[in-house]
Amino acid sequence: MSSSVLVRHYVGGVFDASGDPFPLVDPVRGRPTGEVPAASAELVDRAVRAAREALAGPWGSWAPADRARVLHRIADGIEERFEEFVAAECADTGKPHELAAGVDIPRAAANFRAYADRPAGRSEQSWHTETPDGRGALNYTVRKPLGVVAVISPWNLPLLLLTWKVAPALAMGNTVVAKPSELTPRTACLLAEVAAAAGLPPGVLNLVHGKGADAAGQWLTEHPGVDAVAFTGESATGTTIMRAAAARLAPVSFELGGKNAGLVFADADLEQAVAGTLRSAFTHSGQVCLCTERLYVERPVFDEFAARLAEGARKLEGYGPMISAAHRDKVLGHLARAAADGEVLAGGGAPHFGDDRDGGFWVEPTVLAGLPEDHPAVREEIFGPVVHLAPFDTEAEALTLANAGPYGLAATVWTGDLARAHRVAPALDVGIAWVNTWNLRDLRTPFGGVKASGIGREGGDHSLDFFSEPMNVCVKL
Ligand code: NAD
Ligand code: 6OD
């Protein structure tokens, strides 16, 4: 799918394509389809200053209800230009049209609506207590914005994850400098156009493009004018960004990598578990941070489950490519080592189409088995269409296996036993556990990971809490 979006920065209300360009590549065919101008350090600085000035401008005195109106207008704008957003998302990521049109772009609009309607009670002076020991004082809480927030987002769900942070940051009265992934910048440009048309004052949302290390991302996170950093991406990048933020004690909210486990108990509805695992392992070709990469199956149903999952994987159609040649090569490298050390039940390589897609970055949906738990394909995040199956014998063993390793983002539990579901799910070392489903999202629930998978929680009031400072005022009566 093509997109005519011109990639431009948006700073202080002005669009600008300055900076040395680098190519944007279509993952489906591997051909250049556009250019990204790399922001200079001077432009990043200008964006932070524009955001600081906007805080002190009219935006700083807008009531939550005024902010809510403009956030709803941004959501309206995304819906009005829906097909342009879908085309830009597909051009950048190569993901199937139905995924962009059915999930990712609608979720971007939903993110704005969800946060538009939420903060009134949180940001106004609505929490009050009287000093309980009879000293006659009224305490109330004022919620203030953090200030200038840097939002740095990845390539897998470009608009969904950008708006997931931008919307609550704006709802709480902050100003934002956003840097989307250098691989997928187009939808962010459309968002800037929509925000301007919706009446968001200049400087409130700024957009700079470029790479991460020694480029726009690093310059932004190291900038002394940035008051907080909200980041989604790899755990290793999170470590680097945390160091930069630590230098000035700026708060961070991190959504990072994962190596998500699933547990299939023998009492599960196997048909439901197979169908659910095909979704949880292969949606967006495994390039969703919540995807299942390790599946532990109770031994009595292991062979049947493995055969059915492998058959389902072989029959999958309409999946998309990896984001880049480098990422495809990383995934295929894992598959080559896994094939040498274990079993490949389905897939295992690059598909052959016999057309121009053979120039793109494709990997077949792959089911592996028989690898030891310390194998790189079982321990490291692959972020591709790859799931490894291993058997277990007891509930305790299943939990030990699932909880091993450095990550703790999400897990799935497939069981027909309600008591087991309530016993096992809370015992998992993850931020999100789904029982007999996957990626069913209510935007008010806490979202995030434990261990190397993140710091803090986003979603609903959790995002509003991160993007604001509560201040107590105590009045002697
Ligand atoms: P990445 O860490 O390489 O890049 C993410 C963003 O950070 C990009 O905009 C990039 O330019 C920027 N960046 C890179 N180095 C930087 C630096 N030194 N300073 C400042 N910015 C820098 O991640 P990616 O490859 O784009 O995304 C895939 C990763 O994201 C996977 O690990 C995946 O699990 C994770 N992810 C996590 C979640 C979650 O909610 N936990 C969601 C989506 C993706
Ligand atoms: O659904 C969400 O709110 C969310 N943050 C999803 C993240 C998916 C990771 O790739």
Give a written overview of the molecule.
This protein has 477 residues and is an alpha/beta fold. The chain folds into two domains: 9-256 and 453-476, Aldehyde Dehydrogenase, Chain A, domain 1 (3-Layer(aba) Sandwich); 260-442, Aldehyde Dehydrogenase, Chain A, domain 2. It has 16 helices and 22 strands. The chain has helices spanning 41-56, 64-80, 82-93, 97-116, 120-123, 158-171, 186-197, 216-221, 235-246, 270-282, 299-315, 325-341, 376-379, 395-403, 418-427, 460-466, and strands at 9-11, 14-16, 21-26, 31-37, 127-130, 137-145, 148-152, 175-179, 205-207, 228-232, 252-255, 260-264, 292-298, 343-346, 366-369, 386-392, 407-408, 410-414, 432-435, 450-451, 454-455, 468-476. The strands form six sheets. The chain has a seven-stranded mixed β-sheet with strand order 14-15-16-13-12-18-19, sandwiched between helices. Strand 8, helix 7 and strand 9 form a beta-alpha-beta unit. Helix 10 (270-282) packs across helix 11. It is globular and about 70 Å long. The N and C termini lie far apart (66 Å). The mean pLDDT is 96. It binds nicotinamide-adenine-dinucleotide and (2E,4E)-2-amino-6-oxohexa-2,4-dienoic acid. (2E,4E)-2-amino-6-oxohexa-2,4-dienoic acid binds next to helix 6.
Percent of residues in helical segments?
A: 25-40%
**CATH topology call of the largest domain:** Aldehyde Dehydrogenase, Chain A, domain 1
The CATH architecture name of the largest domain reads 3-Layer(aba) Sandwich
Name the overall outline: globular
Note the total helix count: 16
CATH class of the largest domain: Alpha Beta
Strand content: 15-25%
